[in-house]
Amino acid sequence: MSFTPRANPGVLHQYAERLVAFEHTPSSSSGTANLQNTLIFIAGLSDGLLTVPYARVLAQSLPPTFSLSEILLSSAYTGWGTSSVSKDAAEIAQCVAYFKKLRPDGKVVLMGHSTGCQDIMEYLVGQGAKERPPIDGAIVQAPVSDREAMAFLMDPEVSRRSAELAKKLVAEGKGEEIIPSDVTGDIFGAPCCARRWLSLASPDHDGDEDYYSSDLPLGRLQSTFGKIPKSSPLCILYSGKDQFVSEGLNKKELVEKWTAIVHDGGGLVDEKNSGIVEGASHNLMGDPEEVVNRLVQRVVDYLRRLERGELGTFEQQT
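User: That's the sequence. What structure does it adopt?
Assistant: Structure tokens below.
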């Protein structure tokens, strides 16, 4: 898919020192007059502003009271390898606080793509979650396991050697040292320290951001999905043709398991819109228009239901 240079109308918000969020100008004829709610979009590993193609389409399709703002974190582009999901969550908290102050009567919803999903889980249930500004909803799109993806994308010997070296460096107190690319196979095309490598792909299944692996025990899932507050209803959008997921994985079963655990913990999931987005690849780049529209429509309907209060007490009773 060839790149076409273009101008993107919007507002660049500086929500913290050296950190910004780009708010797309909505297509609504009323412009920004009715804007009161904010959808903060958190992209994935190695992404930055305007790198996830469907975000632009989504921004032009939102309900008239919503706008989409793409957040730029210090971990963007090639910065992720020396960062962490906990640092991402702290920066997202600053952005949430900014938009809550800007629009005090509005809702703030987080939407994550890929590692953005890990950031959302960290935000909601990770260490310090109760001190972060509350959000009104959360959407996770392509919530895949980095550990499982790396297991089938990497040569087994390379995977073993990289994990061994990362564990050795962390044990020696050298977790911030960069692992040589000839050890990792340069799978991500960016420098990565030992600590972050284990966070992504610990063979002991205890990585800081290992939230979405299909083999996690029930107790681990209950401490994450089971702790999502009911004040932040969840929408799970799993790509049907995600190239970073093993073909043998039963995606529908996995989403249903996560949903049940959220409900058992007292949380809420929009079951009407959650599920498998048939035909969708990881970030939908190059996917047919009807597939992109399928994803967009689910997000839009979720936001409308959230705005009408249909994901609160009403859904819990039904």
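The two ends are 44 Å apart (CA to CA).
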